[in-house]
Design a protein that fits this description.
The complex is a heterotrimer.
Chain A lengths: L9 H30 L4 H6 L4 H34 L5 H8 L1 H4 L2 H12 L6 H7 L7 H27 L2 H8 L4 H30 L2 H7 L9 H10 L3 H29 L10
Helix pairs in contact in A: 1-13, 3-8, 3-10, 3-12, 6-8, 6-11, 8-10, 8-11, 9-10, 10-13, 12-13
Chain B lengths: L1 H8 L12 H28 L2 H9 L2 H34 L5 H7 L2 H4 L2 H12 L6 H4 L10 H25 L4 H8 L4 H30 L2 H7 L9 H10 L3 H33 L3
Chain C lengths: L4 E10 L2 E11 L4 E5 L6 H9 L6 E6 L2 E2 L5 H4 L1 E4 L11 H10 L9 H14 L15 H14 L4 E5 L7 H18 L2 E6 L2 H7 L2 E6 L2 E6 L1 H6 L4 H6 L4 E8 L2 E4 L2 E4 L7 E7 L4 E3 L7 E11 L2 E7 L7 E5 L10 E6 L3 E4 L2
Parallel strand pairs in C: 3-8, 3-9, 6-7, 7-8
Antiparallel strand pairs in C: 1-2, 1-4, 4-5, 9-10, 11-12, 11-14, 12-13, 14-20, 15-19, 16-17, 16-19, 17-18
Helix pairs in contact in C: 3-4, 3-5, 4-5
Classes of the chains: A mainly alpha, B mainly alpha, C alpha+beta.
Chain lengths: 280, 286, 347
């Protein structure tokens, strides 16, 4: 650390640190603390009674189900797209990459809206679905679809730059040694991106379980049926069941903390195995 | 079916390669993308298009819609600017200084990405209500934060906080300090060096972060609706108005507002790309 | 106008390692002094201490009669040129050069028109006229380094300090810039220190050379003195492609393998190190004179031939330079004489 010419004045240094730390505490730490404080406001017993509600459990189950469907599907997509983009040259490649980034720039409400317009009662395919008596909007399939929409870029975005950095030489070497395409993929490519894949899955899962706006539009808020945990939090909150709302919220906050911890661990331990550029 | 088609015409479009699986992976990716994203978006545009451009314009300029767009736009811009200033300070402090708890705070910066928006929403509402920890500090002076546009601002600051920090941090990390030494040898004070040399070099990253923060804030829903008050013309944000229209089964109206929001997102994206292209050309780096 | 620099008892260490140890050096006003040495020898640290970019653990630095040790880097008025140019990428060439003048407090700042004129003059001096509106990114490495020098000169520094200024450039550009730097120095007359690990550069450019080794100065002298009268074993071995041969000195003789040579240095006796350079060897006039050396390998350099010789078994090989028309091959026996050698006691 160079001293002398480049040292910021001591006063300036401490003022800046104080400003930064206060800002972060105000906007990050306090809200987090508030979740747990409000959840325990009436004591630990009240906290646990919040989970006596079967609707709450239905919400938890639905959240887990949605994640269990969305994350693996997005994983397949991510690996697929990253393979095509990183290992081959073709026209329209940058367009494809831009399109994959699309959900990040679209409001979650709009993400849900597009499915209502497509599958809703007055939507394009509405009458058709009616004939088949198959509901997408205000039913579980809609929730799954909306979740997939907002979460599918995560894994792809972690894998694409990394696989581009890694190039094709490892795979070509495997092929010359006689491995089939599939073998090459499983034994050479996957191990090379395993940490990035885990990282992407982590982020994808956190978002899938926590998505609110998009799911809110398509779900219809049917208690016990189409409510995920975040939606259930909203319902409890609007009913002035604050302890209940914050109790469920604290589960989600706990998940966020675990995600953050695992993310930091991965960045710290295996930072070199992850893509150099993480854009959010 | 898609796979068979792709294997027939795609191989002639790409450069030959020994690696297999191009057809199937590209085919699957494009199919997935189309089904999940492109077709639904096309339906949205078509639905809005039913109204025609003047129809969309008419919807967009109804007083309530205009008010909602203004609320969203101005609170997002203000939040992005505040995040710009504090984001640079936070990034600076995390990169240049050492202090107890730094590692923890560095990890915490990503909290808005990991925390579900609804959870953030109710937490902020509780904090800034007149009987909340922070709201109660301001209440005696007659300043209400929750259920006013000020509350929206707070929520959007939370939501956009990581963007400027995380775009500036790596640039600052890799920054060649010799340039600062050169400035010192030429007689510049420390403060002059920071404002004339370092900050301008960070500007592209700051601008990118601001644009990202703005783009995210404009469309934000979950963190905002609990603390906003949601009163039309005062504290109603555009995404909420879309939901309201949907509940009224006014699909066309909802689609129209959504189209306006998509346009804003698109322009923001263009701005980001523009900044990055410009700085790459001028300075040779992003 | 040009001032002397004096370092007294300068020491600096970085967590554990001592970079500069009790260093003393006097630089004459207007002199171009090269700081030469292997990497890690302390030469760059010393330069940065003079500039004020590092603070010494002990000792002091004087500019002329003034004790500059406690002056901040801003107040020392040195011109510093970095190996990787350190140009401000977001400013044009002209704005870079004008920077040092623009950051001055209002009362010391020259009027804008003067600054512009100064920049023009400097651009002419460094032979980059008309490039003021360009950005550093649009210039070649050699051009960027010239801008860096112009920028340092703009503030009319008391001394000029260059840290391996041509290290990042390729060979031809380096040679051109060397010549150009000497011209500039002769015109402007600043006291100049420059750091290099390239001995050819140091010997070609400098009025005097200070040879650094492990934090201390082994010798300060003109290029002739350094080459022909090395003060220490390190200097003898570091400068001029010397090979070190282990010998034994006794009486007025040194024993080199089976051969005996007249000693150049009566003070040395016992086991010693003999330093031999290619130019010190010549083909003997009479085949019976000199040492019969066996040719181990032959190679061609642009204008000449080099033969690798074994003077005796078990000794390191030495090289001799031969005219192109002289053809020897591997295995030949070549009679050679040693004209000058340098002898130091073994440690």
């Amino acid at each position: 650390m160079r001293d002398g010419a480049l040292a910021d004045g001591r006063a300036a240094r401490w003022i800046l640190i104080a400003l930064a730390v206060s800002f972060l505490i105000l906007f990050l730490v306090l809200p987090l603390l508030a979740v747990f404080t409000e959840a325990l406001r009436r004591g630990v017993m009240a906290f646990f009674t919040a989970f006596d509600d079967p609707d709450t459990w239905a919400a938890i189950e639905l959240t887990l189900l949605v994640a269990a469907i969305a994350v693996p599907l997005n994983m397949v997509f991510g690996l697929s797209a990253a393979w095509a983009i990183a290992k081959f040259e073709f026209p329209g490649k940058s367009l494809l990459i831009t399109l994959i980034d699309l959900p990040f720039s679209i409001s979650p409400v709009v993400s849900g809206l597009v499915y209502v317009l497509l599958f809703g009662a007055k939507g394009l395919l509405g009458p058709l679905l009616d004939d088949w008596d198959f509901k997408v909007i205000f039913a579980v399939p809609g929730v799954v679809l909306a979740t997939i929409f907002v979460t599918f870029p995560f894994i792809a975005r972690e894998l694409i730059p990394l696989m581009q950095e890694q190039g094709t030489s490892d795979e070509e070497a495997a092929l010359t040694l006689g491995a089939s395409g599939f073998q090459t993929f499983v034994t050479v490519t996957l191990p090379n991106v395993s940490w990035a894949l885990l990282y992407g899955v982590l982020l994808c899962n956190a978002r899938a379980m926590g998505e609110f706006g998009a799911v809110s539009v398509v779900s219809g808020h049917i208690r016990g049926l189409t409510n995920t945990m975040p939606l259930h939090v909203e319902i409890l909150y609007n009913e002035y069941n604050l302890v209940g709302a914050f109790a469920v919220a604290s589960l989600l906050a706990g998940l966020a903390l675990v995600t953050l911890g695992a993310k930091s661990l991965l960045e710290w331990r295996h930072g070199d195995a992850l893509a150099r550029v993480h854009r959010h | 079916m898609t796979v068979a088609i792709s294997q027939r015409w795609l191989p002639s479009l790409r450069k030959p390669s020994a690696l297999p699986g191009f057809g199937i992976t590209l085919g699957f990716s494009v199919a997935y993308l189309s089904l999940i994203v492109l077709i639904p978006l096309a339906v949205l545009i078509a639905r809005a298009g039913e109204l025609g451009l003047d129809g969309i314009w008419r919807v967009a300029t109804t007083p309530r819609v205009l008010a909602a767009l203004q609320v969203s736009f101005f609170t997002s811009a203000a939040a992005a600017l505040i995040n710009a200033v504090f984001g640079v300070i936070v990034a600076w402090v995390l990169v240049r200084y050492d202090f107890p708890g730094k590692r923890l705070l560095d990890a915490a910066v990503d909290l808005p990405f990991a925390l579900p928006t609804a959870v953030a929403g109710i937490a902020l509402a509780a904090l800034y209500a007149t009987n909340g920890w922070i709201g109660s500090v301001f209440a005696p002076w007659g300043i209400k934060i929750a259920f006013t546009p000020l509350g929206i601002l707070v929520a959007l600051i939370f939501v956009g906080l990581p963007f400027v920090v995380r775009t500036v941090q790596p640039v600052l990390q890799d920054y060649d300090r010799e340039v600062e030494e050169a400035s010192a040898t030429l007689g510049a004070t420390r403060r002059q060096t920071i404002f004339r040399v370092v900050l301008p070099a960070l500007m592209p990253a700051i601008l990118t972060g601001v644009a990202l923060s703005f783009g995210r804030a404009v469309g934000e829903y979950g963190s905002v609706i609990f603390i906003a008050g949601n009163m039309p013309f005062v504290s109603e944000i555009a995404p909420l108005l879309i939901v309201t229209r949907l509940e009224e089964f006014d699909y066309a109206g909802a689609a129209a507002i959504a189209t306006v929001m998509l346009t804003i997102s698109f322009v923001t994206l263009l701005a980001i790309n523009g900044v990055q292209a410009f700085s790459r050309k001028r300075f040779g780096h992003a | 106008m040009a001032i002397a620099i004096k370092a007294e008892g300068l020491s600096k260490s970085f967590t554990g390692t001592s970079a500069v140890i009790d260093l003393n050096l006097e630089v004459q006003p207007g002199e171009l002094l090269a700081l030469l040495g292997p990497s890690g020898s302390g030469k760059t640290t010393f330069l940065r201490l003079v500039a004020g970019l590092e603070t010494p653990g002990s000792g002091r630095i004087l500019f002329g009669n003034e004790d500059a040790t406690s002056l901040s880097v801003q107040d020392r008025r040195v011109g510093f040129v970095f190996q990787h140019y350190a140009l401000f990428r977001h400013l044009t060439v002209a704005e870079n050069i004008a920077y040092g003048l623009r950051v001055r407090p209002r009362r010391e700042r020259p009027p804008a028109a003067d600054i512009r004129q100064r920049v023009e003059n400097l651009l002419d001096l460094v032979q980059l006229p008309g490039l003021g509106r360009r950005y550093p990114r649009q210039l070649s490495g050699g051009q960027r380094q010239r801008v860096a020098l112009a920028r340092a000169l703009a503030v009319e520094p008391r001394v000029l300090l260059l840290d391996e200024p041509f290290g990042a450039l390729d060979a031809k550009v380096r040679r051109d810039l060397r010549r150009w730097l000497r011209e500039i120095h002769d015109r402007t007359g600043h006291t100049t220190l420059f750091v290099t690990h390239d001995q050819e550069e140091a010997l070609e450019l400098a009025d005097r050379v200070a040879v650094f080794n492990r934090g201390s100065i082994e010798q300060v002298g003109t290029p002739d003195e350094i080459l022909d009268r090395p003060a220490t074993q390190f200097v003898a071995g570091f400068v001029g492609e010397a090979v070190r041969l282990p010998v034994d000195a006794k009486g007025g003789w040194i024993r080199l393998g089976p051969h005996a040579l007249v000693t150049p240095n009566d003070d040395v006796s016992g086991p010693a190190q003999l330093f031999v350079r290619p130019r010190d060897l010549a083909v003997a006039d009479e085949p019976s004179d000199g040492i019969r050396a066996r040719v181990v390998a032959v190679r061609r350099t642009g204008p000449a031939r080099r033969a690798e010789l074994a003077l005796a078994d078990g000794l390191p090989t030495v090289e001799i330079e031969l005219p192109v028309r002289c053809s020897v091959s591997k295995g030949d026996l070549l009679p050679v004489t040693l004209s000058t050698v340098r002898l130091f006691t073994s440690r």
